[in-house]
């Protein structure tokens, strides 16, 4: 809200003067009776006498409301028109059983989902989709500007729903297929995996070459600590995983080759903090060029203050010459 004529608010300085003038006038208008004792009339003040204080209060409120009406309060109504090219981003996330490894707390998958959701929140004007892969791949969420839906799908990701394995090529190919026909000025795939391509009928190199043909940039992230980690080594008949120490394996040359072939970059995250920094760097590298034109409209509010002032004056007049009438 703004005030079109704020200089009228200085009239509030007259309120103390008006209160002092009323006090002087009240003393002159109503005579004083001197009594030797008030014991006979102690506590006998009528309700009309008690309500007399309402009359000057109503006049004061009317005066204040008129001042605020003169100052012309206006409600600001803003509209924004967004023009520009956003970026289409596909998140390709590994759901192989090794993503449950405990070198991240509580595991790699939960940390990856949380950090990816924070990244989605930063990309206000971009369309984002989600592809998941393990031994096979599919589109979990197509490109959308409704980031709430993307985050819901991210939050629901679990290992074990797909055939186990790490089909990096199929995950990339699925993401490329979702981006190749879009009209976005910039197209990006963020591939996150913790292993080595060991299954699938699509090679990662071929998928990267196809991405390059469609001007799709790929950022690859290898997640996992160095050395050994507690990771699923087998699975029981009831579907639960048996954990044991296993060596962390990462095909970093392949990840680097995929990224460099398409003009992207390869990152290695060995801690949760490093993963957060990687997404922050990608966010800075892939900035949307957005032009925002802001329009402002103003709605008048002074009428409400005038109505309050008129209401107070009318109520004060009715009370003064009816139920609160005094003699003289």
Short description:
It is built from ten helices and eleven strands. By secondary structure, the protein is an alpha/beta fold. The chain has two domains: about 80 residues, no CATH class; about 200 residues, von Willebrand factor, type A domain (Rossmann fold, 3-Layer(aba) Sandwich).
Report on the structure:
- The chain folds into two domains: 84 residues, no CATH class; 201 residues, 3-Layer(aba) Sandwich (Rossmann fold).
- The mean pLDDT is 86.
- Strand 3, helix 4 and strand 4 form a beta-alpha-beta unit.
- It has ten helices and eleven strands.
- With 328 residues, it is of the alpha/beta class.
- Helix 4 runs antiparallel to helix 5, helix 4 packs parallel to helix 9 and helix 7 packs parallel to helix 8.
Task: Please state the CA-atom Rg, rounded to the nearest Å.
Answer: 36 Å
Unreliable spans:
none
CATH architecture descriptor name of the largest domain: 3-Layer(aba) Sandwich
User: What is the CATH fold-level name of the largest domain?
Assistant: Rossmann fold
Give the name of the CATH superfamily of the largest domain: von Willebrand factor, type A domain
Average pLDDT level: 86
Strand content: 25-35%
User: Could you give the count of β-strands?
Assistant: 11
| Global morphology | elongated
Number of domains: 2
- The class by helix and strand makeup works out as alpha/beta
Q: Give the count of helical stretches.
A: 10
Q: In sequence order, what are the helices and strands, one letter per element?
A: EHHHEEHEEHHEHEEEHEHEH
Major β-sheet, in short?
A: 6 strands, mixed
Separation of termini? 46 Å
